[in-house]
């Protein structure tokens, strides 16, 4: 199985991973609407692919940290809470798809780590996932 995008993972033999990626990629960046922790249809599609990859036994030593983020609208306390809810929303979705709870950790980072320089840009309303080798 090959998942490619701005960040991707390949589950398979080295030769399989070097093969050309299929046209449909997998982006581990999940964006949200303003003041929302609800998953969009596109987010659920990406998370379904992520769940399929995480279920592969060859990734048993790999986990993920789900990091929730916000733009700069709202006060610090509110943004921290919203970012936690966003990360928890993604984690809950993956748990419902059969991923073991110990494989995924959710944290909220509020507005502290913007993706782009404009702190109010909607791109900053997101969840990112990073690999955590256990």
From TrEMBL:
Family annotation (CDD domains): OmpA_C-like
UniProt KW keywords: Cell outer membrane, Membrane
Chief place where the protein resides: membrane
Ranges in a coiled coil: none
Matching SUPFAM superfamilies: OmpA-like
Highest taxon of source: Bacteria
Cellular component per GO, a single term: cell outer membrane
Localization in the cell: Cell outer membrane
Domain OmpA-like, chain residue ranges per copy: 19-134
Annotated protein name in UniProt: OmpA family protein
Natural source organism: Jiella pacifica
């Amino acid at each position: 199985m090959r998942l490619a995008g701005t960040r991707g993972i390949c589950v398979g033999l080295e030769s399989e991973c070097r093969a050309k990626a299929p046209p449909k990629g997998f982006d581990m960046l999940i964006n949200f609407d303003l003041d929302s922790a609800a998953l969009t249809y596109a987010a659920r599609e990406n998370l379904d692919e992520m769940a399929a990859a995480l279920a592969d036994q060859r990734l048993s030593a790999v986990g993920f940290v789900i990091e929730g983020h916000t733009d700069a609208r709202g006060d610090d306390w509110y943004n921290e809470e919203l970012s936690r809810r966003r990360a928890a929303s993604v984690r809950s979705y993956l748990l419902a798809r059969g991923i073991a709870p110990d494989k995924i950790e959710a944290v909220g980072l509020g507005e502290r780590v913007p993706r782009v320089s404009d702190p109010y840009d909607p791109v900053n309303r997101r969840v990112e996932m990073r690999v955590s080798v256990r």
